[in-house]
Amino acid sequence: MRKLPTGTVTMLFSDIEGSTVLLSRLGTRYGEALSAQRAVLRAAISDWRGHELGTEGDSFFVVFESAAAAVACCVAAQRALAGQAWPGGAAVRVRMGLHSGEPSRHEDGYIGMDLHRAARIAATAHGGQVVLSGVTWELAQSGLPAGLSVRDLGFHRLKDIEGPEHIYQLAGPGLPEYFPPLKSLGAATNLPVPITPLVGRDSDRERLRGLICQPGVRLVTLTGPGGVGKTRLAIDAAAALGETFPQGIYFSALATVRDADVMWKAIAGDLSVDGDQPAAVMAHLCDRRTLLVLDNLEQVHGGAEVVAALLAAAPRLVVLATSRGPLHLQGEHELPVPPLEVPQEPAIAAVTESAAVRLFVQQASMVRPGFVVTGENAADIAAICRRLDGLPLAIELAASRARLLSPKALLARLDHSVALTAADAGRPSRQQTLRATVAWSYDLLPPRSAAALRRAGVFAGGCDLDALAALALAGDGPADPADPLELVSELMDVSLITVTEGADGEPRVGLLETIREFALERLAEAGEAESAHRRHAEHYAALAEQAHQQLYGPAQLAALDRLEAEHDNLRAALTWSFAPGPAAIPDTERVDTGLRLVEALAAFWHQHGHATEGRRWLQRAIDLASNDNAARVAAVAHGLGILLTQQNEFAAAASLFERSLAIYRDAGDRNQEARELNSLGITRGYAGDLDTARSLLEESAALARKVGNEQRVAAALTNLGLVENFAGNLARAAEVLREAVALDEKYGDQLGLALDRQVLIMVSLRAGHTGEARDLLFAGLDYVASAGNSDILATTLELAACTLAELGEPLRAPRLAGAAAAVRQAAGMPLAAQDAEMVEGFLAPARATMTGAEWDAEYGAGRALSQEQAATLLLTLNQ
User: Fold this and answer.
1) Residue 189: partners with Cβ closer than 8 Å, 6 or more residues away
2) What share of the chain is helix, strand, coil (3-state, %, to 5)?
3) Cα 455 → chain centroid
4) By the 8 A CB rule, do 860 and 814 touch?
5) Inter-axis angle of helices 750-766 and 770-779, nearest 10
6) pLDDT band at 509 (very low <50, low <70, confident <90, very high)
7) CA atoms within 13 A on the CB side of 446
8) Residue 554 — pLDDT band, cuts 50, 70, 90?
9) Strands (DSSP E) along 174-280, which ranges?
């Protein structure tokens, strides 16, 4: 065992931000960047006597005896990294996190919660940023080198760590100052992080920041043609305003949105507000000092009305919008975004200082290392920038060809680029220039890449590599590579796609809206639109079906997250499936694909708070479904019935379940018959017909046992336990619920276990076994808080309020009840009458111990919480 420090040590974790995207851009040269990064860090670690304990890929784990030495090491490393010449002109940014504690020695390293805390702190940082815990700051501050200080970033909640962590950012000469808010669980931001620094917009950025921060300014709209850089400027300006908007800076990409209903849904998702009702979004924002960046509003029908409603409902909200034209709302401050300044004189100094040329050089050096302005190429570069009207997107597209073409050759090809089509003739000159440049870049692509680009236009909100391969590379012959990274690298090299890192760490490919519009036009011209949309819908139907199979097992949370990440593509697939075909009549194959989608997505809509949206799609499917496909009709009717039950429309739900039950009985499908009996039984129970409910549920359990489906047995027993609880048969309820628990544990069904526990808590409370109810409640908090299931969360909050009231802790009950009410309102799922009666029965004595004003204040505080905050409130109960 090597000699390592003991006692209090300071742990450093670091890695390269966006390493997957960097690998895609650099290809084989990524190894050079990785080796250079390692050399820089190891030199600093050696100089400051660190102990390197782990290196995997681009990440480091290092331990220091001194907190001050660890801080000094990070400063030295960041300064050296900033001065490094990286291959391909790439920007390699390393994030670093420090925490001090007393991990236990184990074999040749350390173990303990302090180790995990240090790793989680590092994961909150952005590239180029050094963050440290409050403990490290206290230990290090007396021994810091001159000129160093910290910025207080406040308290943040970290994954798998109890209690908030006070985090600071290291500041000083040679260290970047402004970053987006931390990427913690409680970080109120989702701003994308650009790969390259913003060029040539210093004055525009400061003017925009100053305008946003002026008292009384509520709405600022950046206007200008596509490709002028509105989005990039908005992100950069917003990223530095965290202190001005302490309760959140959020970004909502609306390029694929066409109507106000979906816009509300998109904003709700970006704010982590469940449900698709405007009231949920407005309630979330009503008293928050928040900046909301709404990107690409020009195509959203009713978008201005949505913005007006948001501003009226949330007096502390500021909206920063980007659009090709103003929204024409009262109080709007329009800020036109001009093209970049182009050189007016041929002198090399004037050319080099031009903002447009600086962008050209930045982009060209990424594909041609060492590219600079010289006396020989200055005039040609200046002419290129003037020819492109200083439009950033056009300049980036042209500069991407510098790998093969000199500026002189590039200029010659621009001057002879494709002629504008007749449809372009009426466009403003700058849009003509941009479209011509996009067309020029497209026409230079190899046929396979051109086909992939135009097909990629059908994706909404981007796609992962599997989807790209399934759609963009489909049908192009056996020579296509199995791994689409080669294609991604090729299109990224010419700036026709964007690549970001998805929530799962995998690359996600996207198109700027201007390029996506162009791609869709070319797709239609090639006669491929119908086939591309069909493959898109079929791919996402298969994805939804695969995820559906995982929704009732150990992989449930990952499946739900994947469906949420692809929600825009799933909506696009549904829209195409249920739209009239080329002959303006319903297309049987299209509708069949749509039926597959809604059948697979019904449980997702139910579990993730999308009941209202799901109802619309399922009703559309029912209306279009052919009676010849009876099994599919039955499945869709079942899904719609579940959502109607969730919204307390029991009679309509029962009618749908009866329809499905009749179909499955005629087909002799006993397994599905057991499912319908279960759903119909609990619906009858909530409608008050307990005898019929009991009979149906017992029949369901018996039939499920006969066909050998123990998970379906467990589901029927859970609902039977609930009905017996309604009837006051508590001993019988507890008996069947214990059997349900055993079966759900056997199959690892976390959702089933959560439902079992909820009913057992009800039974325990009614039986006066309050301690047992408390233990059951605490046993399931982690799952409930992380599942994202609005129904489970709301019910658990209500049961927690009842349990605490019974335990003699009435002060926390109203806040929990208020939080539950907010979750239910956002998700559009009111509390059923029987459940409301039970909750009121337990809360009424607690309410009597407080004044009306005290209760209302706590209840209102709970109503103001977001779903994520409500989940956090639950986790504090057993601390």
Assistant:
1) 180, 181, 242, 248, 249, 250, 251
2) 60, 10, 30
3) 24
4) no
5) 160
6) confident
7) 8
8) low
9) 219-223, 249-253
Q: What does the pLDDT look like over 190-221, one tens digit per residue? A: 787 676 788 889 899 999 999 999 999 999 99
3-class DSSP state of 533: helix
- Distance between CA atoms of 715 and 701, rounded to whole angstroms? 8
Long-range contact set of residues 411-415: C-beta below 8 Å, sequence gap at least 24: 411/380, 411/383, 411/384, 411/387, 413/440, 414/384, 414/387, 414/388, 414/440, 415/387
> Percentage of the chain with pLDDT > 90?
44
Nearest to 271 by CA among 871, 868, 873: 868
Which ranges of 507-649 would DSSP assign to H, the alpha helix?
513-525, 529-549, 556-565, 567-577, 588-607, 611-624, 630-646
**Closest CA relative to residue 835, chosen from 867, 802, 804:** 802
817 close to 801: Cβ distance less than 8 angstroms: yes
- CB count in 10 Å sphere of residue 59: 16
Classify 317 in phi/psi space as left (phi over 0), alpha (psi -120 to 50) or beta.
beta
Placement of tokens 């109802």 in the chain? 615
Instruction: Summarize pLDDT for 376-412 with one digit per residue, the tens.
Output: 899 999 999 988 878 888 888 888 888 888 999 988 8
Long-range contacts of 846-852, Cβ-Cβ distance < 8 Å, separation of 24 or more: 846/805, 846/810, 846/813, 846/814, 847/810, 847/814, 849/810, 850/810, 850/811, 850/814
Read off the tokens for 129: 């940023």
**Residues sharing a CB contact under 8 Å with residue 670, sequence separation 6 or more, in sequence order:** 703, 706, 707
pLDDT at position 579, please?
Answer: 86
Sign of the CA dihedral running 668, 671, 672, 676: positive
- End-to-end Cα spacing for the chain: 37
Q: Are 530 and 455 in contact (CB under 8 A)?
A: no
Structure tokens at 742: 């055993």
What are the φ/ψ torsions at residue 826 (nearest 5 degrees)?
Answer: -65, -35
The Cα–Cα gap between 97 and 134 comes to 12
Residue 424 has what pLDDT? 42
Average pLDDT score over residue span 262-282? 81
**Distance (Å, rounded) from C-alpha 132 to C-alpha 309?**
40
Q: How far apart are CA 88 and CA 86, in angstroms?
A: 6
CA dist., res. 516 & res. 524, Å (int): 12
